[in-house]
Amino acid sequence: MHFNPDINTYIPGKIVCIGMNYKSHIEEQDGRFPKKPVLFAKARSCVIKNRENIIYPREVEELDYEVELAVVIGRKMKDIPEDKVPDYIYGYTIMNDITARNIQKNEHQWYRAKSFDTFGPIGPVIANKDKIPDPQNLNLKSYVNGKLRQDGNTSDMIFGVYPLISYISKSITLEAGDLISTGTPAGVGVFMKQKKMLKPGDTVICEIENIGKLENKIISE
Fold first, then answer.
1. Does domain 15-220 match CATH 3.90.850.10?
2. pLDDT tens for each residue of 33-91
């Protein structure tokens, strides 16, 4: 697969996501650290871009945000060791892993809850990997209506970017244009002492240094 690195026309081939990959996010849940990476997929049809609207579906009761560092694969790779992974990366972007929490909980699987149309905002750009020499030292934040919700650093990952991609490539052939989203830090709405879920009219901003700010508004279906 050949892909155009222009974010405005980019649609991932596959979207492979990592759950429960930040120590702070585990600690705000149940404290049970995974022994191996937790993989799940999002449908490529859920992708939207910067300043496009997130649609709040009628059947969703709890809508949540997750700022994530996402990796864009640059060329086909299979069973690649960690130290060679950078050779296969094109660049990095931001993903807001929008999630219907009530569906995630009630259906005991994550695919549908994370794959509704518009549940995959990415952007605002694809930053070439040369602009991010160390993906394990990036500040990442999220805001809802201008108020800070998440404030973390990629150094808090349990499984780092290169080990993760190596691990995935052992079982799944990754191709140019595939997107790997690497997990989220603490501060999501569902795990706050008083839940702070998204609602129509809210604006979410996800920010990662050296990449920029991804902004999307929530609207009713």
1. yes
2. 899 999 999 999 999 999 999 999 999 999 999 999 999 999 999 999 999 999 999 99
Alpha-carbon distance of 129 to 157, in angstroms, equals: 19
Amino acid at 45: S
One-character DSSP codes across 141-181: EEEETTEEEEEEEGGGBSS-HHHHHHHHHHHS-B-TT-EEE
> Can you tell me the distance from the alpha carbon of 219 to that of 221, in angstroms, rounded to the nearest whole number?
7
Domain residue extents for the chain = 15-220
**Any idea how long the chain is?**
221
Nearest to 65 by CA among 92, 95, 27, 85: 95
Strand order in the sheet with 139-144: 54-56, 212-220, 203-208, 139-144, 147-153
Distance in angstroms (rounded) separating the CA atoms of residues 69 and 184? 8
Count CA atoms closer than 13 A to 169's CA, side-chain side: 25
- Distance separating alpha carbons of residues 179 and 70, to the nearest angstrom: 6
Q: From CA 146, how far away is CA 58, in angstroms rounded?
A: 25
By DSSP bridging, strand 179-181 and strand 15-19 are: parallel
**How far, in Å, CA of 112 to CA of 90, rounded?**
28
DSSP-derived pairing of the beta strands 47-48 and 120-128? parallel
